[in-house]
Design a protein that fits this description.
The protein has 20 helices and 2 strands. The protein has about 500 residues and is mostly helical. The protein is globular.
Length: about 500
C-alpha cells in the first residue's frame, strides 16, 4: 500500500523527509561555503594592507597568520565541545565568532582591530567538520555519502568562488564591504541553522580536557608560527628553532597527558587505528599537494609579460581562472559518493590523488596561456573533490558515533598542517630559484615548475599511503548512521553518564 499523504500539505512522509534532508544539507553546505569565503576575502587586499592599515608589510602579514593560528586551535576544540554538548550548539558558536570577527574587521582602519577580527574569523574554522558530524547523526543512510562529500567540497567551493567576488568588490567598492558581506552571510547561515538544523541527541557528556586543549594549542601555535614566519625570521634563527623545539617538546608531553587522562581532548588510541592513522597521514600529505596550486597559479597569472612566462592578468582574472575549480569540486561530490558506495572510500581517495598528480604533471608543460592554467586548475579541483569526499567516510567508518566531531576535526587539522607545510616549502623553493627583471628578483619559471612537480610528488605519496588502507568496502553510510534503536541506546547512555 502506498504511503498516505498529509491532509494539510498533500505530501507523503517520504517526500516530507526528503525536503527536510535537502534543507539540512543546503544549510550546512552554505555554512561551510561562508567559512571558506572568510579565508579568501583578504587575498585581493594583501598588496594594499600596509597602506590601508598604516603599518609595515611585515606587520600586516599577521592579518593572515592570526587566522591560520586561530583556526588550528579552534578546530579540535570545537569538535570535542560538539561531541560533548551538542554539535549544533558548537556550530552556532562558531558562526557567532565569524560574524563578530567580520564586524570588527569591517569597522577596522588600523592593524590591531584587524588582527582581532581576523582571529575571531579563524575561530570559526570548525564549521565544516561539525557540519559533517551533524549529517552523520541526522541523515538517512542513502544520503550520507553524497552529503558529506558536498560538505567537504564546500571549503574549496567557497574559496574558489570567493576569490573573484572579493577581487571585484575590492577594486570597485570600499574594502570594508568585504567584511560586511562576510558578516551578513554568517548571520544568514546562523539563522538558517537555528531554524532548520536539529540539535544532536548523541552526546558524550563528561568534563572538557582543558589541560589537553591548552597543550595542543601551545604546540600548534609554536609549530605553525615557525612554519609561517620561518622565511622572514630565518630558518636557522634562534626564534624559529626555539619554536620548533617547543612544539616538539609540548607535543610529547601533551601526548602522554592524553593517553593518561580519562576524557581526553583527542582520543589518541582511536587515532592509532590503522584506518584513522593512515587517513590522517594521507590527509596531511594531500593538504600539502592541494595548496601548491594555490601558491603558483596567482603568481604566474599576475607576473608581467616581460618576464617571458607571466601573463599580466588582474586579480579579477585570477579569480575567474581559478573559480571553475570550485564548481568542479561541487560537481564531483556525487561522483565521489558513488565510487565510495560501490568501491569503497579507499579507492575514491586513491583515484582523487591520481587525478591531482595528473593535473600537476600536466601543468609543468602547460603554463603559457590562461586556458592551460584553467585546465590544470579544474583537473586538480576534480581530484580534490574526489579525495575530500572520501576522507570523512574513512574517518567515520572507523570511529564511534560519539566521537565523530572530534575525529573529523582532527582530520581537518591534519589537512591544515599539510597546507602550512606546502606554503613554507614553496616559499623556500621560489626564494632560491629566481630571475632578474631589472633591479627586481622574481620567482623563475623553473621555480614554479619545481613547486608543481613537488605537488605531483606529494599527491603520489598520498596515493601510496592510501593504498595501505584496509581494503574492505565499509558501507560508510550504513555504518555511520545508527538505527533509531541505537540512537536511543546512545542517548540513554549519555543521560546515565
Amino acid at each position: 500500500m502506498a504511503p498516505s499523504a498529509s491532509p494539510q500539505t498533500g505530501e507523503t512522509p517520504e517526500e516530507a523527509q526528503r525536503e527536510t534532508t535537502n534543507g539540512l544539507v543546503a544549510v550546512l553546505a552554505l555554512a561551510g561555503v561562508t567559512v571558506a569565503l572568510m579565508q579568501t576575502i583578504v587575498i585581493p587586499l594583501i598588496p594594499e594592507l600596509p597602506r590601508l592599515l598604516h603599518a609595515s608589510a611585515a606587520d600586516t602579514s599577521w592579518a593572515i597568520t592570526a587566522t591560520l593560528l586561530a583556526a588550528a586551535v579552534a578546530t579540535p576544540v570545537m569538535g570535542r565541545l560538539g561531541d560533548m554538548y551538542g554539535k549544533r550548539r558548537a556550530l552556532l558558536t562558531s558562526l557567532a565568532l565569524l560574524v563578530s570577527g567580520s564586524v570588527v574587521g569591517a569597522l577596522s582602519d588600523s592593524l590591531a582591530p584587524m588582527i582581532v577580527g581576523r582571529t575571531l574569523q579563524g575561530l570559526a574554522a570548525g564549521v565544516i567538520p561539525l557540519g559533517i558530524s551533524i549529517m552523520r547523526d541526522e541523515l538517512p543512510a542513502q544520503r550520507l555519502g553524497s552529503a558529506t562529500a558536498l560538505m567537504s567540497a564546500s571549503l574549496g567551493v567557497g574559496g574558489a568562488l570567493g576569490l573573484p567576488t572579493a577581487a571585484f568588490l575590492a577594486q570597485n567598492t570600499d574594502w570594508h564591504v568585504l567584511f560586511w558581506g562576510a558578516a551578513g552571510m554568517g548571520a544568514l547561515a546562523a539563522v538558517l541553522v537555528l531554524t532548520l538544523v536539529p540539535e544532536s541527541r548523541i552526546r558524550t557528556g563528561g568534563r572538557f580536557d582543558m589541560v589537553g586543549a591548552v597543550g595542543l594549542s601551545a604546540a600548534l601555535v609554536s609549530l605553525l608560527l615557525a612554519i609561517s614566519k620561518g622565511a622572514d625570521w630565518g630558518w636557522a634563527s634562534p626564534l624559529t628553532l626555539g619554536l620548533l623545539a617547543t612544539a616538539a617538546i609540548v607535543l610529547v608531553l601533551w601526548g602522554r597527558w592524553e593517553l593518561r587522562t580519562a576524557q581526553p581532548l583527542v582520543n589518541l588510541r582511536a587515532t592509532t587505528r590503522r584506518q584513522v592513522l593512515l587517513t590522517n597521514i594521507a590527509s596531511a600529505v594531500f593538504g600539502f599537494a592541494m595548496f601548491a596550486n594555490s601558491l603558483v597559479m596567482p603568481q604566474v597569472l599576475q607576473l608581467p609579460e616581460s618576464t617571458g612566462y607571466g601573463l599580466g592578468a588582474s586579480m579579477v582574472t585570477v579569480g575567474l581562472v581559478m573559480g571553475p575549480s570550485g564548481l568542479v569540486m561541487m560537481v564531483m561530490a556525487p561522483v565521489s559518493a558513488y565510487i565510495t558506495r560501490t568501491r569503497g572510500p579507499k579507492v575514491t581517495l586513491m583515484v582523487g590523488a591520481l587525478v591531482v598528480a595528473t593535473g600537476y604533471g600536466v601543468s609543468i608543460g602547460l603554463m603559457s596561456a590562461i586556458w592551460q592554467l584553467m585546465l590544470v586548475s579544474t583537473t586538480i579541483g576534480a581530484g580534490i573533490g574526489l579525495a575530500y569526499g572520501a576522507m570523512p567516510a574513512l574517518i567515520m567508518g572507523a570511529v564511534p558515533v560519539s566521537e565523530t566531531a572530534a575525529a573529523n576535526s582532527f582530520n581537518t587539522l591534519m589537512r591544515s598542517v599539510g597546507t602550512s607545510m606546502a606554503s613554507a616549502v614553496a616559499g623556500v623553493v621560489l626564494a632560491q630559484m629566481t630571475t632578474a627583471l631589472g633591479p627586481i628578483e622574481l620567482p623563475s619559471q623553473n621555480g614554479f615548475r619545481t613547486v608543481m612537480a613537488i605537488g605531483a610528488g606529494a599527491a603520489l605519496v598520498a596515493f601510496t599511503i592510501a593504498s595501505f588502507l584496509p581494503g574492505k568496502r565499509p558501507d560508510t553510510a550504513a555504518a555511520a548512521q545508527p538505527e533509531p534503536g541505537a540512537r536511543a541506546v546512545a542517548e540513554t547512555r549519555t543521560e546515565t553518564a
